[in-house]
Amino acid sequence: MAQVVRPPESVPWAGRPEIARLAFPILYGEIVGVVTPLIILAIMGRVDEEALYLRSLYMPLAFLFIALQMGLDISNQVAAALSRGRGRPQDVLPSAASMAVVGGAVWGVVALAVIAGAPWIASLLEVPVGSTADFVSFVRWICCANLLWLPVSLCSSSLRGYGHARSAAGVVLVGAGVEIATVAVLGFGTGLGTYALPIAMAAGAVAALAYAFLALARTDVWRSRETFTWRPEVLTHLAGAGGPITISFLVIAVSNFGLMWVVAPFGPDVVSGFSVAVALETLILVPSTAIGSATAITMNRLRGADRPDLMLPVLKAGMGLAWLTYAVLALAVWLPRAPLATLVAGTPDVAAQTELFLGIVGLTYGCMGITVTAIVIIEQIGGGVLALLLNVPYFLGGVVAGALFAGAVGVQGFYWTLAVLNTAGVLVVPLLTRKFVRRRFPEGAR
Length: 446
Known about the structure:
With 446 residues, the chain is mainly alpha-helical. The chain contains 17 helices and no strands. It has 2 domains: 16-230, no CATH class; 241-441, no CATH class. It has helices at 16-47, 49-86, 92-124, 129-147, 149-162, 165-189, 196-217, 220-223, 233-263, 268-284, 286-304, 311-334, 337-345, 348-361, 365-380, 384-409, 411-440. The longest helix is centred in the N-terminal third of the chain and has 38 residues, at 49-86. The radius of gyration is 22 Å and the shape is globular.
């Protein structure tokens, strides 16, 4: 009888239940992160309709900062997971500090560019003249608040990558709770309107960072840390994972500018309704990113422990979990789309537009969720360039083809374009992911 070779205890076998156990803390942490802007949209819609409109116009810029955050976050998470596989907790925080040096420089330059270009952005998005000054001021203040979230992201990804996913989720929960409470108090009690949001973001970041330091102090990562000297290997992680991921999210940010440009001629109700639908879409896709991240974290630990033979079984387990999840979730979102839109949108006209979008696109979220799971895995195991090549035709194709169909048959044509692209993705991306893993880790294909 052939001897069964078991992985070392530091790298547990990752069948579907093991991946689920890692995915659940990531899931509820990400749910909090996604629900937070939805709650804020609901609050702002009830405080001031113009505030909701300006916040909706800001969504493409939000993706720009998300692109930077995700590139650093995932690069740092990969480094922490590899350190876990190698049994070297002392490398985690010095790597994060080096990431902070690079990220702070890039983030600062981008923030200054957006602050300087805010009037031009307002013109591009066709902000009404009476709202232009408020939009420009809002964008500038929120850019400053965003800077505070860089160290929060790095602390959280260090915890998550090394295996402390619950502590990482706690960081998100504390920051979100403080942000929501602050925007509600300031929005209703002071008359600040839109300007309550940057103040709330700053308060949430400070609270989250304090909690993150306390969580790190209780781990081996903190107790065994080495000096915070420059770690050149972070450039490898940034080039292999962070750079392509950032570019992918920049493509998403550019496409969101394009998507807003497509719907802008249809009026403020359509713009706001579409913005709410996009926020709901982000929430619906949270399980896919959680499952993909949990699968990739496990695979990266296996890379660190030199166990390529387990890579393909882990991939199969993770993708199987995604198929099971989205077979149910797509229907669970599509069927109650009317009350769901009413709950989130705030006003009947905006809710009607959100319901229209979900009626056409909502059922294809099942396909999109599986596709996103596969792309997240590729991004985090060294296939960032491939993931970028898969993202570009979807997002830019949605803008170009969507604009053509929107001009021909109305906004419904644009929505049907997105539904077709979602369906096409699931036919291609999972197969390419499997092929990539087999080629990159050939010992696991035997």
